[in-house]
Structures are given as C-alpha cells and as structure tokens.
Amino acid sequence: MSRMPVEHPLRREVNNEVHARPPEAMVAPLRVSFLAMYAVGETRDQGWRKVQALATRFGVAAPADNASHFSADLGAFRLKAERHSEFLRLKVIVAGRGSAGDPFAEPALDAVPADWVAGLPGQLLVSTNVALLPAADGIPDADTIATRWFGGNQLVAASIAAGAAQAYTDFNIQPDGSGRILIYDHGLTPRQAGRSVQRLVEIDTYRVLALLAFPMARALVPQINRGERELAEITRALVDAQAKDEPALFERLSRLGASIESQQSDSLFRFSAAEAYDTLVQQRIVDLRETRLPGLQTFKGFMGRRLEPAMATCRSVKARLELLSQHLARVNELLATRVDITREEQNQRVLESMDRRARVQLRLQETVEGLSVAAITYYIVGLVGYLAKGAKAAGVSLDVEIVMAVSIPLIAVLIYVGLRRLHASLAKDH
After folding, report:
1. Which of 68, 83, 198, 427 is the most exposed place for a label (fewest CB within 10 A)?
2. What pLDDT digit, counting tens, does each position of 224-241 carry?
3. Distance from C-alpha of 76 to C-alpha of 58, rounded to nearest angstrom
4. How many CB atoms sit inside 10 A of residue 106's CB?
5. How far apart are CA 394 and CA 341, in angstroms?
C-alpha cells in the first residue's frame, strides 16, 4: 500500500460527522420516551455527566467527555443520548406494547431510575412518548384513536414512509405531562422504523425550539412601534431644526440607536436559530414522505397553519428591526452632516475673526515700525552729534547742528530701507 499524503487535521472528524447520530433499529411493538432538555454552557456539560453516571451505574462504558452522542443497551432499556448546541436529547427504548392494552400506560421512561430522571439539569422543553405497534393487530378508526389515547383532540396524521406506516399525534401535552405519537407499522424495516420515529420526534422538538422566538417577537413589537414613532419625530424635527437644537436631537438619536442595537443583539441569535429550526422541521416533514389519510390533516398542513404564521411574525419583526436600524443610521448621517456644516461655519467665522485681528495687528505693527524708525533715527543722530562735537574739539572746522540736520534724512532712509529688506527676507523664509 502506497504512503498517503499528510491528512488535514479535521479530515476524520468531518468525515465521521455524516455518520453521527444514526437512527436506532426498531421492531414493533415497542415504546419510546423522548426528552429534550434545554441546557447551554455548564448545564449542558452537567447533563452529559449525568449520562456518563447512568452508563456507569448499569455497568456500561461511559461516553467520552468530548463525545456528542451515546447509545447503549442498559438491560431493561436502551438509551440514546445526544448533545446539541442548546439542548440535550435523550431517547429511551423499551420492547413490548405494555400492559392493559394501552401503549401509553407504561411509558419507556418508567424503566429509567426515577431519581436520575428527576435530577437531570436544565429545563424540560419536550417530553414525548411514542408507541410503535404492528398494523397486523388492527388499526382503530381515527375517532377511536383520538378518544382513547389523545383526549378527543383533533388529530394530525398521515401515511408515512411511502405507505409503510401510519402516524398519529395531536401535538398536545397530555395530563401525564408528555406528548404522544402513535405509529402503526405496515411493513417498516427496522432501520426505516428507527428513522421514522426519529423524524417524528425531531419535528416535535424543532417545532418547540423554533417557537421559542415567538414570545420574544411579540414582546419586541411594541418597542419597535415606539422606536419608529420616535425616529419619525426626530426626522420631522430635523427639517426645521436650528443649530442650537442639534445637540438635543443628537442625544435623542443616540439613545434610540442604543436601544435598537440592544434589541438586535438580544434577539439576533434567537431569530436566526428559529429560522434554522423551522428549516429542519420542513425538511423532516419532506423526509416522512407522507400522504393524506381521509378526513385528517397532514403534518405539513398542520405546520403550515400553526407554525408558519409564528415564523412569519418572527421574520417580520427581525426585518423591521433591521430596517429601523438602517433608517436610524441614515438619519444619524444626516444629522452628523448638519453638525459638520454648522461646525464648518463656526470655524469659518473664527478664521475671519482671526484674519481681521491679524490685519489690525499688521497696521499696529506698521505704526510701531514708523515710530521705531523715528526713535532709532533720533538715537543715531545723537551719536552723530557727539562725533561731530568730538571732531570740532579736535580742531576740525564743523558746524555740529548742520551735520546733525543733514544726517537725519539719510539715517531715516537707511533705517527704513533696512527694515523693509528684513521683512522681505523673513517673509521669503516663511
């Protein structure tokens, strides 16, 4: 055998993922109890440790800490456990139809130690008892099924697996605290039976998980309505707002933006998860390959009437939140532009004021320079007078006053020209 290249570190993990959580092989008659415990974070890990403890308690090798699914025969019952991102799913399987002719009188969960069940961490989301019975024993009419096992409630039913079985439920919680699914086997293979049961309980589970977003959506509607009104008021006020009104409008807009952002952050995961769960429900219904039973609504029909309106509400609320956030961003940009324009106008007025002050300072400087020329000329002429007096004392024939008078214009011109050249040189260097 030739040497293979170096494997990608995730190759085997992702390859094995498609084989994870295979359905259990089932043969009628049998009973199945299904639990879905809402558990995230540490609670989810605690639930898995409970599964490990149960396996150890019955002398079976416990699953690994990082395992996501576990299946084992524990003697009186078979257990299948799965860890998901938000919930822990447990399936208990017991052979036989139970006693007294009632397949729901002794649910499979009764075979599990009661203290273990009561100590499961998390919150119960779904509890469903499934009865898989051979159709050869006879199938009562729909009214009898509804009256005998579903409290007279309206049934949801269909022929599934291309006619190999019939499934009945009402998606209600019965007085014992669990839902019920009744399946009559017309010729399912063990694997088909396992897949059919799994699809039915997954429809029930994902339906509940999807609907967790609905109460949140209803609670958000009044808040979105208030946000839309507030944004409309701010937008109208912005039309005639003066510069002095802009800080108050910006404060209102900031508070509204923070509120909308908080609502989006709180609801984003729940709404996204609801869409994913709803997609799974629809896919599992397709996988059932159902056909209508006379006088009864199908699983697809029931979900279309009951689940889809709630999901439409969730999608609408999510879209309204996103649209409100976009509108707020545009109004925020508009207000920011107005503030920038106001700031630019203020800066322009400041620059004009500075320019006026600079011109005044220049005139004062020119005035001071003129005085400076006169003062410097005065002192230099004085020095010239002292030189002339010294020369006269040394015997030179000079008229000191004339010498000083003649030097005044010459010195003044030289000083003035020197200062102008100095200014020109400084300006050129700058």
Report:
1. 427
2. 999 999 988 888 887 777
3. 10
4. 17
5. 78
